[in-house]
Amino acid sequence: MTRIIGKETSRVDGVAKVTGKAKYAAEFQVPDLAYGFIVLGTIAKGTITAMDTREAEASPGVLRVLTHLNAPRLGPKQSTEEAPPTARRERDKSFRALQSDQIFFNAQPVALVVAETYEQARHAARLVRVTYREEPHHTDTETAQGRARPPSQGRPQTPRGDPDTALRDAEVKVVAEYHIPIEHHNPMEPHASIAVWQGDRLTVFDKTQTVFTVRTHLASGFGIPEANVSVVSPFVGGAFGSSLRPHYHPALTAMAAREIRRPVKVVLTRRQMYTAHGYRPHTVQRIALGADRAGRLSAMIHEAVHNTSSFEEFSDDTTGFTRQVYACPNLSAPLRVTQTDLPTPTWMRAPGAVSGMFALESAMDELSYALRMDPLALRLANYAETDPESGKPFSSKALRECYRLGAEKFGWKDRNPEPRSMRDGRLLVGWGMATGVWGAMQMPATARITFRADGTAHVASGTSDIGPGTYTVMTMIAAEYLGLNLEQVEFELGDTRFPQAPSQGGSWTTSSVGSAVYGAALAVTGRLLALANRDTSSPLRGAAAADVEMLEGRLRLKADPSRSVSIAEVMRRNDLAEITETYESKPSPERDKYALLAHGAQFVEVKVDPDLGTVRVTRAIEVTACGKIINPKASHSQEIGGVVWGIGMALQEATEIDHRYGRIMNPNLQHYHVPVNADVHMIETLFVEEDDTIVNPLGVKGMGELGMVGIPAAIANAVFHATGKRIRELPITPDKLL
Known about the structure:
CATH topology of the largest domain: Aldehyde Oxidoreductase, domain 4
Shape: globular
Distance between the termini: 58 Å
Mean pLDDT: 96
């Protein structure tokens, strides 16, 4: 039964967003609201020796100035880290504001001014005087590599085979080093919280990808039961990982509200965001590939170092996917982290994967030129039919078809392999390609459906929607299996009152929450069947729940739709106005027998001005194999967004740090460059659907992060083909090409 799933569907929340009806964290109306403004420190490491807040406190409208000297101490933190099991950490050492005189990074919050209006708070924040004792700091990952060590947690880094010997004996070798700077998320909506206390009960409106971890974070910090904390976050204006963990501002806002006994709102400025929610870490990677003359890999050595903070270990598993992409018997992929006096990095769209695959796929391109072999042919020569790491079969893998379809659509056969050989007038034309990969993950999730006798349904789960279209997809799944139209289903999310769900991260939301909605819909069907079969004359007697379906107000036998009953009549007869079913979906044990990945292939054209060194991505074709496509319209949008971000990562994005001061120098949208309309030309996204009943009941795999993974490498490879210059340090800016 497919009526809705797989159809192009516009966002059910689209009208609310364009009319302003959709409320974001800072937009909730709360009576008697006060406003907080954060004061940032000006040194990278040391201690605060004096705080002069007298002028600020005397400023008009100021209600309180909180510093480490008068801020209440928060209780021990329960860990709220939610990430793939390989990346899970034991203890929560995340930064908390105003809890000591110690300075860990430049632009660290050192005070919070609370006033009657936002403008009064902002003005008074400029009057706070802070004196420091500075200590020597280190913020340059490149010079801190010598102190790097393996992360204390994560997947084992055991080599496969004997990569050193295999590399030494290889007929053809490529050895190269690749660099990626710190990058920041820059979502459209700034991070914000509103905190309201009613006795010992706390309500927080927060920009978050997971209301439940914010609840845990606040309950443990303030020493109150989780049942006393309500977190609300129905709409999120972009996050991409920047709201996966609770950062310092929700607790700081709640602390201020409790101190002044009034609701408080804190909205971060762009400057404040750059040290408030993490970033993609600075990464240095060294890759050595060995192959025979036919291009078959015999050795892969992929070493990576990235920065973390001085107070907390973070690892994004940069080299993890290298182990699973190509068939190679000898492999080493160690990752090390090094401490810097900067905030802790965090998950950022396609964490680890896009960084690691930039280096690996660039190195594969370099190997293709060393072999004088087509880059696509090289990848096909090393195609992994089973998982090279575990030896397990893939639950599904249509990557070969992605390569074929992408090459055909792009016209890859017409590529002249010689660098600088293709032109459009005076512009140099380059074609490059790469492979993308991401995990097909699923997390436990719960959904609740209330089905009403009038043929409408309310569906709820405490998940999030940071922009991919979760409201729409969950509405579609519920409508499909309840036999309703979209307008008959209301789906709600983003509230701790709703059933437990994982964060929106890891590209696992549809597989996790969607499976829960599907399970709850089947439970409603089963309940209706049991009620119908109380009637001895029911045409469905003897049927199992799996044999029936709901459609157009009737419960009917799939094999014989003429055998059916009226759902409204069944409910009326049993004196029921509504039926509520709650269902928890969990990953199936069957998943453990397989390697579970989503794959993609990217083909890119660039045009380079040889005099100016400017690069334009004029054509991109992305072909993705990620199981079943629920909503093609939203799915294409997701993949286009991934390509656009890949363009930004390859050509524009870099967080610039002046290491003399350990200070971020471009913490705004004027000087941190991201793609705009003029940077984006033709992008075509295609899907190769896979029939995969192992990953989850819906057969879906994550795509939101996959769409970005291979793009920076494909662009870099196209730039080399156009210019003959191999740029191994992102972003590829004109100065590196001239």
